Amino acid sequence: MSEDARWLAAAAALAGRARPLSRPNPGVGAIVVKEGCVVARGWTQPGGRPHAEAVALAAAGDAARGATLYVTLEPCAHRSLRGPACADIVSAAGLERVVIGVMDPDPRTAGAGLARIRAAGLSAHYLPSDACARSLSGYLLSSRLGRPEVTLKLALSLDGCIALTSGESQWITGAEARAHTHAMRARHDAILVGGGTLRADSPRLDVRLPGLESRSPDRWVLTGGGVPVGWRALSSPEAITTMQGVHHLFVEGGARAATAFLKAGLVDRLLIYRAPVLLGGRPALGDFGLSALAQAHGVWHMTERRQLGRDTLEVYEARKLHEG
């Protein structure tokens, strides 16, 4: 990995601090580097402004002169009522170089930001970065397909069950896995369960990790009926195209909702928390439309596996997402 690629990966990791509070804007990371040392850094602020570049360059001040700015997403080229174009801020900062990991698909920028920076006399480079693209995956998918990126979470026994035959399901996994689930909730704009799960369990679906309580996602339920105060209804998986400002959707339960999203082909990532227990109870999934075993192969790509106390987490991405 080149030096530029390493700094872009660092900016991508930094961008995680913005998510999801930066909505409706994507979470972007920026790092100002001079002579191999970090001068300043920034990420998109809550509500979407200031942008990451503006934060980093304001922190750097005069030290930005002659430095390199690494930013995960092409600086915006359009002015708005909320602030100036980042391409102009970058151009005026006295930088020597700018390195961008992802070009912005927003038609208001879409190459114009990079062109404006170059026109100001700076050395500006687009270096495609997988780390940056992954950090912006929800924004990029939403721009391409008009819907949020969907992560389906399943907490399973070894035999693929999510509850006893009686319906008892608290708790299949241990404290470490549950804490990790809360951390994942904190990274999503919205969380969804099925109507049956809402009626049976009355889940809170908030984030109960110290310091992250403010990052609890908006609560949605897959149902054709009414919803409690503080919840929003989604009539079908396909209706996620109407979820304005949502780049990352976390589907947490139950079996019917999970099956419905898989049947609709709308799951981009799987988080499977597997506990070392056998239940012989209620299966995690129903029939989601496979007519031949061959259709099941080659769909999912494992990207991560880790131990969480006694439990195991496996993360899979749909092959189309990994390759696209």
How would the blueprint of this fold be written?
Layout (H helix, E strand, L loop, with lengths): L2 H13 L13 E6 L2 E7 L8 H9 L7 E6 L12 H6 L5 E6 L9 H8 L3 E4 L3 H6 L1 H9 L3 E8 L4 E3 L11 H11 L4 E5 H7 L16 E5 L8 E4 L13 E6 L1 H9 L5 E6 L7 E2 L16 E9 L2 E8 H5 L1
Parallel strand pairs: 3-4, 4-5, 6-11, 6-12, 8-9, 8-11, 9-10
Antiparallel strand pairs: 1-2, 1-3, 7-13, 12-15, 14-15
EC number: 3.5.4.26, 1.1.1.193
Catalytic activity: 2,5-diamino-6-hydroxy-4-(5-phosphoribosylamino)-pyrimidine + H2O + H(+) = 5-amino-6-(5-phospho-D-ribosylamino)uracil + NH4(+); 5-amino-6-(5-phospho-D-ribitylamino)uracil + NADP(+) = 5-amino-6-(5-phospho-D-ribosylamino)uracil + NADPH + H(+)
Family: In the C-terminal section; belongs to the HTP reductase family.
Explain what this protein looks like in three dimensions.
In the C-terminal section; belongs to the HTP reductase family. In the N-terminal section; belongs to the cytidine and deoxycytidylate deaminase family. Converts 2,5-diamino-6-(ribosylamino)-4(3h)-pyrimidinone 5'-phosphate into 5-amino-6-(ribosylamino)-2,4(1h,3h)-pyrimidinedione 5'-phosphate. Its cofactor is Zn(2+). The protein is of the alpha/beta class. It has ten helices and 15 strands. The strands form three sheets. It has an eight-stranded mixed beta sheet with strand order 10-9-8-11-6-12-15-14, sandwiched between helices. A five-stranded mixed beta sheet has the order 2-1-3-4-5, sandwiched between helices. A two-stranded antiparallel ribbon has the order 7-13. β4 (97-102), α4 and β5 (123-126) form a beta-alpha-beta unit.
